[in-house]
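task queued by scheduler; priority normal; single chain, no ligands, no partner chains; default sampling; output format set to C-alpha cells
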Amino acid sequence: VLLQNEWRQGGHLVTAALERREDHLTNDPIDQSRHQDAIALGYGYTGGPHTLQVNLRHDRDSEFGGQTTGGVAYGYSFAPGWRVTGAVGTAFRVPTLYQRFSEYGYGGLQPEKSRNLELGLHWADHGSRFGIVAYRNRVTDLITFGAAGPCGSLYGCYANTGRAVLRGVTISGAHKFGPVNLAGSLDLQDPHDAATGKLLARRAKRILKLNADTRVAGWTLGAEWLASSKRYDNAANTNVLGGYGLVNLYASTTIAREWQLLARIDNLGDKAYQLARGYATPGRSFYVGLRWSP
C-alpha cells in the first residue's frame, strides 16, 4: 500500500509518502512472511539554471530493523542546451524471502547497503541529445547467486559479497536523420569484488544498445540491436559465458482513439546464448498485442 502526496509552489515541490509492504512465501514445507513500513520525504527545486532534488527515507523491516537512506542531486545549465549534473546517495535493500528460504536460499543473508556517486554532462537541442555519466557505487553485502554452499541446491546458492565496487561510464545519444530516429547507449563498466579484484558473476563489462525507427503509412517501424561482451558465471571467473548480439524488430499503429496495435519479433536471428550457465534463453519469439491509453 502506498500513500503519496505532493505540494507545489512556484519552482518548489514537496513530496511525502507512507508505504506498507507485506511479503509471503508459501511452498511446502516453507511458510514465511514479513512486513516493511516506510516513510519518505522529498524536496525539489527548479529555478533559472538550477535544479535540486533532496530525498530522505526511513524503512523499518520486521526482520532487519530500521535503516535511513537519502540522496542529493543537483543540475546546472551553464550554456544553452548544456547541463552538468551530480548526485550522491545511499541505498538499502533487504533479501527477498525467496533468496533466504527457497531451495537456493540462505537464511543468513544480510541486507545490501550502498553509497553512490554520479557525475554527468548533458546536451540537448531540437530533439537531438547527448549525455555522458560517470558513476561509482560501493556496496556492502551485495546479494548475488554463487556456488553451491549452505543451501539445499547443488547448482548454487544466494550469498553476500562482502565488498563490491560498481564503477563505469554510460554514453548515450539520439539524433534524427531525415525520417529516421536513431538512439543508442554504450555502457563501459567494471563491476568487481573489492577483495579479489575479479569481475562480479554474470555482469558484462561492455553493453551496446542501438535503436532506429521511422514512420511509414501510419506505422512506426523500428529495429533494436543489443550487444554484450562476455561475462563469468562464477565468482572465481573460471566459467565463461560468451558475448552475444541480438536483433529485435517492432511495429505499432493506432487503430482507434486510445488504442494501438503492437507487434514485435525478439531475437530475430534465433541466437543461442546464456545469461546463466545451464539455463536456456528464448529463441526467436513473436508477439502481438493491443495497448489502451485512455
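post-processing summary
- The chain has a mean pLDDT of 95.
- The chain has one domain: 80-292.
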